[in-house]
Amino acid sequence: MLKVENVDSGYDFLQVLWGINIEINRGEFVALIGPNGAGKTTTLRTISGLLKPKGGRIFFKDELISNLPPYEITHSGLSYVSEDLNLFVNMPVYENLLMGAYIIKDEKKIKQTMEYIYELFPRLAERKKQLAGTLSGGERKMLAIARGMMSNPEMLLVDEPSLGLAPYLVRNVFDALKTLHGEGLTILLVEQNVNATLDITDRAYIIEQGKIVLSGKSKDLARNEHVQNVYLGI
Amino acid sequence: MLPISCFLPIWTSLNHALKCKGIRMVILQVIDMVKKFGGLTAVDKVSLQVEEGQIFGVIGPNGAGKTTLLNCITGAHKPTSGIVNFLGEENLAGSPPEVMCKKGISRTFQISRPFPRLTVLENVTVGAAFGAQSHARESAEERALEALEYVHFPLPEDTMAGHLNAVQLKRLDLARALAGGPKLLLLDELAAGLTEGELADIMKLIKRIRERGITIVIVEHIMKLIRGVCDTIAVLDYGKKISEGKPEEVMRDPKVIEAYLGE
Amino acid sequence: MKENTEVLKTLGDSILEYIKRKPAVPGAIAVTVVIAIIIGIAGGPAQVVNAIVAGGMWALLATGLTMILGVMNVPNFFHGESFMVGAYTAYFIFTPIHLYLMDNPNKFLSTIAPFAGFFAAAVIGFILGSILEKLVFYPLRSKTKERWVMNSFLLTVGVSYILSNGVNLVLGPNFRGIPRYWDVPPIKFFTIRLTVDRLFAFFLAMVVLLLLWYFMGKTRTGRAIRAVSQDEAGAAMVGININNIHTLTFSLGTSMAAIAGAALLFMFQAYPTVGLRPLYYAWYVVMLVGLGNVSAAVVGGFIVAFLQTATQQFFGIEWGEVVPTVVMMIVLIVAPSGIFGSEVKGIQEQ
Amino acid sequence: MIKSTGKASTIARTLMSRTGFSSSGIILIAILAVLPFIPPFNSEYILRWLVVGAFMAAQAVAFDLTAGFINVVNFGFAAILGVGAYTSAILANTGPHIIVQPGISPWIGIFIGAFASAFLGFILGFLTLRLRGLYAAIMAWFVGIALLGLARTLTPLTRGSLGMSPPSFFDTPSNMPYYYLALGMMITIYIVTKLVTTSHIGLAFKALGQNFDAARASGINPTFYRVFNFTLSCFFAGLLGGFYAHYFVSMTPKAIMHTSKSVETLAIAFIGGRGFLWGGIVVAFPFVFLLEYLRSALPQLPGIHIIIYGVLMILVMIYYPNGVAGFITELKKKLWRLRKPEKT
Question: Does residue C260 have a pLDDT over 90?
Fold first, then answer.
């Protein structure tokens, strides 16, 4: 479904990614794991179009998307939930969700999705009219994921949903992701919480210093010596 | 089991005795610091005591108020209430940052703040020329060069600071803070985004800085670094200090495990 | 009955809470009311009415300015020139119709003729805004974001001087004005005589502001504009075409200034540098209430109009710029980001 | 003997580098000094353009001290220049048109005017202290408008919009002495500004202009340096205002204090290059010539020069934000890099 081919990317004076290759099939739940500064967020930003790749190509549903602006990539069915969430803090929760459905023009469909989202995240339903800026950390993450879901995407890119959350909230967020995956959504998850991530995903890529160094089934990776040493602290 | 507080008077008097002998002096003392932003209490009655020559770590989850605490100490924020004593001077809370810097507190920033259209050398010279031990321009430049060498800055000095990447900027920030000749150095997430090798390097560097007689307070995420260099750490959660002590002890504190280390 | 008191109580509580959080707001409103009463006693109620009419216009101008600032972070210095373009457009559309009607009187046509002027001004202002955005600000934006606020500000300064001198070059420095839009006797209201033009100008400003409020609050595109002003990356992520939103916002802001210029043609004649005073007052309002604060700009428009009227009343017209500036200095010393606080991110950064 | 000359030359070289005169700078000044004797320039008509060029160049340098270093665009610059001009003009007045007749020599009045402007700059510095970037620029604009309003309102002192005709510096119709006076002022202002900005004070200016919080955390006192910067820049403005008054010998509030005058200075300084100081000097002369030529050649197109200013400024801001000076510096660096491998 998503195919990242030899992508180089980075910022003005700094190249972060060096020839990244990632391939994800429809319905898979894939993790991208690596240390701080390895280029995980850069990878997601490049896929979602917020950063232009310096080289290589990205295909989504067999269509070239690496030359499209971010809003057109969203239109093609790829939704990105960023690390800093990028919520509209002065809008209430329901308006944030409405904005998530910006690309959908069918009012009825928006309403249906919204009801589905409220079912999935009852917490958000309770705080419908609260400004997004006044939500707690966990609620914000939920809202960001929910907003990402509002455009009825075929694939979701999620960047470090566990960052700065209390453990029980992390579990909530992961459960939500698992449910979404169970309903057929393709997910690429970036995480530092390696243990929990390898637990719920099908496959994983390990990225270090801008290069993919390992990939494979999550279960196998959890037993891999390098992974155990570096990430699991065993 | 006796409660720990029973030992407090003994500990205090012991500490006092040691202090009288000049063995360890308290360089920075924060008492009941409170900082509110509107309705949110970012720092809630935090007290700290940093002894001279110590490496003191402050850890906690994102949004626990670590950076805010640091800002309150350096004067970047005016604390709502609380006391800051530094080097024998009492109640410095609320002094502007430039005054705190002149008194000997230098800092680095979580998100580096370079002067983008100055060269690397000029950036560090600013620190040297206006810091705690300010001198005339020439000697400031020399000390800037020395500081750059000290932190092993990898690029030529005439590179524009705006062209550096995040990791290099952190080094630059550190060099600028060091060039001011501080007594106390506050490091805000210095190691974020470093690779393993660089992390070991920076840990060595922090220890070397301490050997120069500079006391260090580190705010950090990365446990490896905290465990590797800190003598004492304090743990913040939702603005409150929930634990303090030697790293190994604190790591075993169930409160800390619940709040921070998680699963 | 009981419910009613309960509702009133919660309402009272929330108002009290609001006052506690932002004490400057009721303070500013109270000061305005006091000034209004003083003007009313010293200069008669007509002065108060005039100030309210002017306030509507400054509010309209300031809202356009603050919208461009809030969404695009562009501090617009050619807002006055947009005003001027509106005035010229209205003049060149309205005058021929007016001359034709002098020969062939037609009551219906002369009632709606001014609307042609207003409408044309709105359209021309919109087109001007889109062209300038695509021609000047889009290239700057795609080039670099470094020192954006200052650089874009200087660009608007350049545009301002090109526009006013360009008009001077083409049309000359002559004043072009009309005595009135509607040739009907003024409305008498107790002792107040109010011309229909003035009344309508105020009415138009309020209608435009209401329409804007509806557009921003209730429509999909309006929400998109607000989204872009709050988080650009987030807006791009949900599928909003940021460039289009920027162009639209800019055009709307310019268009609003042009409407103001058209509506006030009977008061400000069209000439190349007519925009200076409106620009000054629009910026005055925006600085006073806080950059990018759209709803506050409306209140600010009235505050400034009363301040201006009071200055003319008590100091004389020639002090019209000195006294307000002194007031502004005092306000900014007390509240460096305006009475109601700034809502523009990044404007403080350098 | 040889040793001492060696020492002297080193001192000269350090002084040259501190004052920012490279060899090309010295050549430029030498050319400017002999220019009035070379044919097309020795006519009084063209000489007048040269005077205006030096005057604009000096303004650009003084303006750049604030805009290019502490990053505050002083939109009230022209108004503050006007305060210097009016102070000097009023002090020199002997006629019955206004209420005071101090009759002080312009040579003294110009300095008193400069101090008056410096005092206003001092106040402006304090006023804009807590305001950053844009706020400070708009505030300075407001102050400028208020000063213009004052000059119009205080008719007993300034004759309002009618304007004043102060006495001239020299008792001669020739422009020659004025040219050297203006050139001298330009060079002096440049040297003083350069000395200040190459010292650690200049470093503090740049640091404050580029990152306010980091500068404070590094121990820089923002109050002192910002107020100092404004005071110095406005002192120069006042000095130039005095020159204006006693050179053009006729002035109205609108002709010197209007915002558009600040914008003209701003355009020259920014097209020349922010923070380079000499950029404005390099740009001012050709500009004044081009524009005066256009004005005289195309009298049917009034204001065309301002349109050209505007277009050039926009193009420079978008495509070359460092201006002409930035372009030349980069070119030099590239040439130097090309030459280097040949040497080795």
Answer: yes
Percent of chain C with pLDDT over 90: 32
Please, what is the angle between helix A107-120 and helix A167-182, to 10°? 130
CA distance D165 to chain C (A): 23
Judging by DSSP bridges, how do beta strands B232-237 and B215-219 pair with one another? unpaired
Residue D255 counted as domain residue:
yes
Q: Exposed, middle or buried by CB within 10 Å (0-12, 13-18, 19+), for A52?
A: exposed
Residue given tokens 């929760």 in the structure block: A93
pLDDT digits (tens, 9 = 90+) for C80-135: 999 999 999 999 999 999 888 888 888 888 888 889 999 999 999 999 999 999 99
Secondary structure in 3-state letters for A156-192: EEEECCCCCCCHHHHHHHHHHHHHHHHCCCEEEEEEC
When CB atoms are compared, the residue of A87, A95, A103 closest to C234 is A87
The alpha carbon of residue C337 is apart from the nearest alpha carbon of chain B, in Å, by 17
The 10s digit of each residue's pLDDT in D64-95 is: 999 989 888 899 999 999 999 999 999 988 87
Q: Which residue of C has its CA nearest to D299?
A: C169
Q: Which residue of B has its CA nearest to A163?
A: B62
pLDDT for position B165: 76
The per-residue pLDDT for D228 is: 94
Please list the ranges in chain D whose pLDDT falls under 70: 1-8, 15-20, 340-344
Residue B212: pLDDT band (50, 70, 90) is confident
Domain count along chain D = 1
Rounded to whole angstroms, the Cα distance separating B256 from B45 reads: 18
A170 Cβ under 8 Å from any chain B Cβ: yes
D296 domain residue, yes or no:
no
What are the helix and strand counts (H, E) for chain C? 14, 2
Q: How far does the CA of residue C313 sit from the closest CA of chain A (Å)?
A: 41
3-state SS class at B239: coil
User: Which chain D residue is nearest to residue B110, measuring alpha carbons?
Assistant: D214
Alpha helices of chain B — where are they, by DSSP H? 8-20, 66-74, 97-103, 120-130, 137-150, 166-179, 196-211, 223-229, 247-252, 254-256
Tokens coding C256: 């609003």
3-state helix, strand, coil in chain B (%, to 5): 45, 25, 35
pLDDT, tens only, B57-80: 998 776 678 888 999 999 888 888
- D216 in contact with chain B, both atoms CB, cutoff 8 A: yes
Compare CB distances from A167 to B192, B222, B263 and report the shortest one's residue: B263
SS3 string of D97-162? CCCCCCCCCHHHHHHHHHHHHHHHHHHHHHHCCCCCHHHHHHHHHHHHHHHHHHHHHCHHHHCHHH
Structure tokens at A210: 């801008």
Q: Do C238 and A75 touch (CB under 8 A)?
A: no
The domain ranges of chain B are 28-104+183-263, 110-181
The reply to whether D157 falls in a domain is: yes
Q: Angle formed by the axes of helices D200-210 and B137-150, to 10°?
A: 50
- CA-nearest residue to D68 within chain B is B117
Query: Is C102 buried (19+), middle (13-18) or exposed (0-12) by CB count in 10 A?
Result: exposed
- Total beta-carbon pairs less than 8 A apart between chain C and chain D: 134
Distance from CA of B12 to the nearest CA of A (A): 35
Domain that holds residue D100: 38-264
Q: Using CB atoms, which residue from B96, B115, B132 is nearest to D211?
A: B115
**C187-242: per-residue pLDDT in tens?**
887 777 778 888 888 999 999 999 999 998 889 999 999 999 888 889 999 999 99
Domain at B28-104+183-263, CATH homologous superfamily: P-loop containing nucleotide triphosphate hydrolases (3.40.50.300)
Q: Which of A48, A89, A98 sits opposite C230 (nearest CB)?
A: A89
* D180 part of a folded domain: yes
